[in-house]
Amino acid sequence: MLDSYFKISERGSTVGREVRGGFVTFFTMAYIVALNPLIIGLSKDADGKFLGGGDAPNLAAIAATTALAAGVLTILMGLIGNFPLALATGLGLNTFVAVGIASKMSWADAMGLVVLEGIIITVLVLTGFRTAVFRAVPAQLKIAISVGIGLFIALIGLVDAGFVRRTGSGPVPVTLGDGGTLVGWPIVVFAFGLFLMIGLMVKKVKGAILIAIIVATGVAIAIESAFKIGPNFDGKTFNPKGWGLNVPKLPSDIVATPDFGILGHFSLFGSFSRVSLVAGILFVFTLLLSDFFDTVGTVTAIGHESGLIDSKGDVPNNDKILFVDSVAAMAGGAASISSNTSYIESAAGVGEGARTGLASVVTGVLFLFTTFLAPLVAVIPYEAATPALVVVGFLMMTQIKGLDWADYGIAIPAFLTIILMPFTYNISVGIGAGFVSHVVIRIIQGRRSEVHPLLLLVSGLFMVYFLSSPINAWIG
């Protein structure tokens, strides 16, 4: 029954590979359950209130609701889209909601704008517009998007592990470790996990990524138990030799009762009584554009990595995949945890062999368990999970051989797409730069007829996106 429904054999996979892939995807993105509360849970709205309307942060409720939404939506992606793609609260989007939107209105108003964005993007899917835009992108630019995301997630892995860190000053924005030097046991755990993962993959060991994460976590727990390293930031002081997000130690309580008290705290149109109509529209537009094209990039990358993409650059069940992703944006706002979107960390599960929605169902079920087992999830440190992102980044980078570097109308946009994703830490910026430069070059070459009309429209919208700051200043 599983094989027939998910087309496991047809896609060259097995139930075992799908289950392993689902676990790996969960391990590489479970951090969002701990991180999302720190981003939206510690910020106050314009009324001086925390999310949920209280005078004190409710991090436990945000963590439980984040896991609940991720679990339900990821299972829906597996059952409806039959694609190895997991969803959760979008990083970057949650920061924009917390800092850029909620600071100017109440949390309920801000989440109402997220719901509005989700409704609009769902309508765009149902009318076929989102799918049409997806198909209007040249196949080689889709390859460039996939390669750029590969570099992006590799950089995410290196930064989250502390191997690469922000300098805060000086001529370059990042550097090796702490001031150019690798320090602390967590870096040792990261290096150990990375080389173990590479070694197992070279030896073609089944479950290489999953095995490496589990073993590295065990080593991390032993090191923390022996040396009492602690976190790299405890809320007051920074310890360059400390662990990233999670301190790897066995919790005293494995099971915790989930709190879903923030569900449904949103006001659909309340924001327009706090900010101008134009400002509200610009907020929704920014959310929409980022959500729209982050997903295009993610789906393209996962499709290439899994070998499910066809000669035109399309993936199977594309309409259903984009529909679930669009509903996720709406559901995230309704759940008061910010817009939910597709996660590029799903590529780690694909690297483990996942090819169908069964892997997503496994990941989703694990997220649902996390609503009760949040203390256990906190055992896995960044340094044990992030080697998977570096390895998968390499696998996605290999697609660069499919680009035609002799055609400047493709090569230059591809180059900008690839480098700007990691350099700006933003998928949409890379996609937008690639689209705009492709259109401009084709017009200069006198080959305007080769550019799809929808790509012209989208490039114009990206120009508005890039110029949003001066436009905001102009309209006051």
TrEMBL record:
Keyword presence, Transmembrane: yes
Major place of residence: membrane
A Pfam short name: Xan_ur_permease
| Gene Ontology terms: cellular component | endomembrane system; plasma membrane
Query: What is this entry's stated membrane topology?
Result: Multi-pass membrane protein
Entry's localization field:
Endomembrane system
Keywords on record: Membrane, Transmembrane, Transmembrane helix, Transport
Claim: Transport is one of the keywords in the record: yes
Question: What are the recorded GO MF terms, alphabetically?
Answer: purine nucleobase transmembrane transporter activity
Locate the transmembrane regions by residue number.
21-40, 60-80, 85-104, 110-129, 141-163, 183-202, 209-227, 268-289, 365-396, 408-441, 453-475
Q: Which InterPro entries does the record associate with it?
A: Azg-like, NCS2
| Protein family | Belongs to the nucleobase:cation symporter-2 (NCS2) (TC 2.A.40) family. Azg-like subfamily.
According to UniProt, the name of this protein is Unannotated protein
